[in-house]
Amino acid sequence: MTDHDPDEPVDAELLLEDLAADLVSERRHEPLLTRLFAAEPGVWHDLDALAEGLPLVRDRLAELDAQPIHVSWIDLPTSIHGDGYCTITFFCERGHLYRMALYDRGRLDRSRGRPRPPRPPGRLLN
């Protein structure tokens, strides 16, 4: 979690930005991502419902009074990074706040010991 100066006001936009970044980057939140990817792509899902039984995520959601927060994902079949990438979008209608993240869905497979699919030939990435 990103630390904030307690003397500085924290707005909902910053809280949503931090929450989205943490959910897609911290291994401890993989159960939520597993649930999200089991849900239908391209459809809005309630983040609070996906976080059922996940107290770490629920605590973070409690920081945001702007619920509900919706989340959706779609595959990016032509990603320059190769197969398995998708976008995850977090949206809070109150305040019209949103954050989008690029995510390697193969990351979850690798964390469970499954190998990553090979990269397409002929692509150089920095």
Verbal overview:
With 126 residues, the chain is an alpha+beta fold. The protein has 5 helices and 4 strands; from the N terminus they run ααβααβββα. The protein has helices at 12-25, 30-38, 47-50, 55-63, 106-111, and strands spanning 45-46, 69-75, 85-92, 97-104. It has a 4-stranded antiparallel sheet. It is globular, with a radius of gyration of 16 Å. The model is unreliable at 118-122 (pLDDT under 50). This is SnoaL-like domain-containing protein. It comes from Nannocystis bainbridge.
Brief digest:
The chain has helices spanning 12-25, 30-38, 47-50, 55-63, 106-111; strands spanning 45-46, 69-75, 85-92, 97-104. The protein has 126 residues and is an alpha+beta fold. Mean pLDDT is 81; it is low at 118-122.
| Element-level helix/strand string | HHEHHEEEH
Mean pLDDT: 81
Distance between the termini: 27 Å
How many domain modules? 1
Q: Based on DSSP secondary structure assignment, what is the total number of beta strands? A: 4
Q: How much is the radius of gyration in Å?
A: 16 Å
Share of helix among residues? 25-40%
Strand % is 15-25%
- Helix/strand structural class: alpha+beta
- Give me the side-by-side strand order of the main sheet: 1-2-3-4
Backbone shape: globular
Count up the helices. 5
| Unreliable stretches covering 5 or more consecutive residues | 118-122
Q: For the report, how would you describe the main beta sheet?
A: 4 strands, antiparallel
